[in-house]
Amino acid sequence: MMRNIGVIGSGYTAQHHIEAILKLGSNVSGIASRPGSNTTFKLGQQFNIPRIYTSVELLANEIDSFDGLVVCIPTEAVTEVLDLVGNKSIPILIEKPAISHIDSLKKFKNSQIFIAYNRRFYETVKTFKETASTLEGFYQIQIVEDVINLKSQELINKIICNNSIHFFDLFHFLFGKYYIDQVSVMPGFSSFGVTIKSLKGDQIGVMHIYFGTPINSGITFYNKNCVLELKPLEKLLRYNHLKVIEPGEKNKIRLYTPIWLPETEKHLFYEDSTTKPGFYEQMKVFLNLKNHSGLPGELATIDDAEFAFNIANEICTKIERLLNDI
């Protein structure tokens, strides 16, 4: 297991990565962020990190003293950082979506670079995948963004490519490669419907992207014998049958109630509540890339990042065309 990890970035996400590293028994030996960052110093003190660098360049100069590197900085700054450390012979974990121009990442395909899509590592997601992968069925994906007033195409692109992209990668992880067929405007012009097809051309699901709608994001799988629901992703619900309760004296309405089977799986929450969901399991896989090699397991690769990025770009392009026609 890697023991000495360097961290670039000192925001909210960096703290979750550091907590997972320490819980797994490894050390955060150094941390760096942009020059003059107060949060870098505070985070370094909070977790007793011995080396607090005043610039990424200074950390890069001592890269050989680290077994691995975690990069969690704004997307627009990642390319510059990778130019300093991307070709080094240590594994690097970069927060999703990695970069805003995928071509800048392609040149590092021969490096040990992975993308931190932590939702791949939810226990609920793993159980969902294990069940759905053995069945034929239909997927419904609901993606909800907090923005209510869409003022520009640039805003839509930023939201979809930086946040919704989590779901594009997650569905790739659950199902495999797919493609986007049609994108349509839904009533109200603040939501969009997306048709999803397999590489064979079969429709396998629909994706709804909502802006400012009071519902939960999630993924549902429908099969003739069961329904699996991740909504929110941290909770898995599964039912196999409906119980019909006929109208009676007290209740004049016919009721249809899901029968959850088995009962122990009625509510399956992600069990580790001491670290942010997915971060612990993701870091465990990353830290066990022994001798800078080995199988990445469920870690997202540069190819995975490229796939999700291309899906996001295609959806953004089709939405832009729709809005121009309105």
Q: How would you characterize this protein structure?
A:
By secondary structure, the chain is of the alpha/beta class. It folds into 2 domains: 4-120 and 275-299, 3-Layer(aba) Sandwich (Rossmann fold), CATH 3.40.50; 121-273 and 310-325, Dihydrodipicolinate Reductase, domain 2 (2-Layer Sandwich), CATH 3.30.360.10. 33% of the residues lie in helices and 27% in strands. It has helices at 12-23, 38-46, 56-61, 75-85, 103-106, 123-132, 153-175, 279-287, 302-325, and strands spanning 4-8, 27-32, 51-53, 68-71, 92-95, 113-116, 138-145, 178-185, 191-198, 203-211, 218-222, 227-230, 235-245, 255-260, 268-269. The strands form 2 sheets. Strands 7, 8, 9, 10, 11, 12, 13, 14 and 15 form a 9-stranded mixed beta sheet that branches.
Domains (count): 2
What spatial form do the alpha-carbon principal axes imply? globular
CATH class of the largest domain: Alpha Beta
What oligomeric assembly is this protein in?
A: single chain
| Uncertain runs | none
> What is the number of helices?
9
Radius of gyration using CA atoms only: 22 Å
For the termini, the CA-CA separation is 55 Å
Number of strands: 15
* SSE succession: EHEHEHEHEHEHEHEEEEEEEEHH
The secondary structure category is alpha/beta
* Percent of residues in beta strands: 25-35%
The overall pLDDT average reads 85
CATH topology name of the largest domain, in short, is Dihydrodipicolinate Reductase, domain 2
Classify the helix fraction into a percent range. Answer: 25-40%
